[in-house]
Amino acid sequence: MELEIQKAIIKYGLEDLYEYSDVDVLIVGAGPSGLTAAKYLAEKGFKTLIYERRLSFGGGIGGGGNMIPKVVVQEEALSIINDFKIRYKRADNNLYIIDPAELIAKLATGALEAGAKIFLGVDVEDVIVREDPPKVVGVLWKWSAIEIAGLHVDPLYTHSKALVDATGHDAEIIRIAAEKNPELNINIKGTRSNWSETSEKLVVDYTNKVAEGLYVTGIAVCEIFGLPRMGPIFGGMLRSGKKIAEIIEKDLKG
Length: 254
Ligand code: 48F
What we know:
Helix content is 39%, strand content 24%. By secondary structure, it is α/β, with parallel strands linked by helices. It has a single domain (23-253), classed as FAD/NAD(P)-binding domain, CATH 3.50.50. Ligand 48F binds at residues 28-34, 51-54, 59-61, 122-124, 166-168, 172, 218-220, 230, 233-234, 237.
């Protein structure tokens, strides 16, 4: 029996790895912005893959608001909440409250049911850039377990038409792209001090392409463009995810 189990895992798992070694859209990070972007892109027919370093999805959602088990969104995010069939209650001042476990589960379900693929335990460590003109065309990645063990193992490659940094506060992928490839002309400004109201609007306004083939969504937008952080409110993350999906759709359809 154990041999059959192992053969099934290897046969179908390697098939998936082969199939997803090149994609239309590669999203790094399965937090609120990355999962939202994945749903809207996959349902438009783009071959969409998420790499997530942890063995679970949700990113910062699990911490709720200051570790208290409620997530807050504002009215502008309600249409997205409804698209994912997430239940909510109305609080005061046009704020809406959601159970964080439900938010994680339904965002992931929405992305998967739309046709996106999620690989867990994958750590993205570098980008692939081709020149004339410079363009990001994919990533180098390792299993997170290899990274944590500090083993020297060569990474694997995945090619993408659009690479999305949805890695959260550190904007890891764009930071690596900027440091190693000055020809991409990416200037990282760093996040400013908290101002929830302003930041919730600006994070959506500034969500965009940062270089050919490279896009940013979520709180990473604040890090790249020098916007204030917003504290424990999630509407801007969802709206930023939807906006980057719309931008990529336009770019890829040309
Ligand atoms: O941090 P995260 O939830 O990013 P987000 O979508 O949302 C931010 C909010 O959670 C919160 C906030 C609300 O107002 O500010 O912080 O912008 O999710 C980022 C995910 O990316 C994964 C990480 O484990 C997390 O689940 N990640 C980060 N770097 C890598 C990565 C990497 N190099 N490779 C793979 N996954």
